[in-house]
Amino acid sequence: MRPPKQSIEITELLEWAKGKLHRVTDYLAAEEPLEIRVARQEEPPAALTVTMRTPGHDLELAAGFLLTEGILSSSEELLAIRAVSNESTGKSNVVEVQIAGKEYDPEQMRRNFFAASSCGICGKVSIEAIRTRGLSRPNPALRVPPDILSSLNGKLRGDQAVFEKTGGLHAAGLFTASGELVALREDIGRHNAVDKVVGWALLEGRLPLSAHILMVSGRGGFEIAQKSIAAGIPILASVSAPSSLAVRLAREMDLTLIGFLRGERFVIYSGADRISLAMPEG
User: What pLDDT digit, counting tens, does each position of 158-211 carry?
Assistant: First the structure.
């Protein structure tokens, strides 16, 4: 899989190796700001948030962000979405979105984002916010054998085109219950990578993702768990450990949460019923 051209930058650098200094050419993961502007019906778009991201799949990122943050609840509420180019630079670091059907106060949303980041996403407040959104619990009927889960990390790494070039990106991969990779997105932020996957599903009319597994590089934090639940994903797996708040949320919302998924070992923190395992006695 080829990486998007705008996702990689080339640079000259000095490398010290085996007692000698070399001048070499290397690849860097691109990082630029993306401003998401939102308008309801025929109103002019207003800036909602700015996120630092790896350019590429920006419409998916914006759509996924709005869905996982509760501003959109379905594809029917997304009236239009477009990238806006800067005439002087030729770059597109703005996405404008027109939504329908909801009362929307951009100033209040901006305050909410600021408060969440300032308090480090306070536990009790954050989980209560999830409750008030009325999100459905993920599909309880999905069953996945352990050998399918054990195969996911290798498939994720094998398709990380930008990581292969730069060594500096996170990935989120969406898999079927049989282990087929459906969509993979990379970004400097693992939450952005997840939003790109969810946004892809939203724009393709595939939500809810009730028969799928999400695999992420790095750890499985609260934001990743919340975004998975918003997209209807029943099983979330990560290469590293989840956070305590992610575990609390997963257990309350019956999300299957798996950590340390590396080869033939993984740890189940919540929702073990979805994994076809012989449970230990006692």
Answer: 765 544 444 558 899 999 999 999 999 999 888 999 999 999 999 999 999 999
Q: Which of 150, 207, 214, 230 is nearest to 176 (CA)?
A: 214
pTM of the model: 0.86
> Is residue 122 annotated as part of the catalytic site, yes or no?
no
Q: Per the residue annotation, which of 1, 24, 115, 119 is the catalytic one?
A: 119
Longest CA pairwise span in the chain (Å):
68
State residue 130's pLDDT score. 81
Q: Contact at 8 Å (CB) between 82 and 23?
A: no
Kindly report the average pLDDT of the chain as a whole number.
Answer: 85
What radius of gyration, in Å, describes the C-alpha atoms of the chain?
A: 20
Domains of the chain: 32-133 (3.10.20.10), 146-274 (3.40.140.10)
The sheet with strand 46-53 has its strands ordered as: 46-53, 32-40, 94-99, 78-84
CA dist 189 → 89, 135, 192, 249, 260 (Å) = 24, 24, 5, 21, 19
Strand order in the sheet with 265-270: 181-187, 170-176, 212-216, 235-238, 256-262, 265-270
Rounded CA separation 169/167 (Å): 6
More confident residue, 125 or 115: 125
Distance CA 240, CA 13 (A): 31
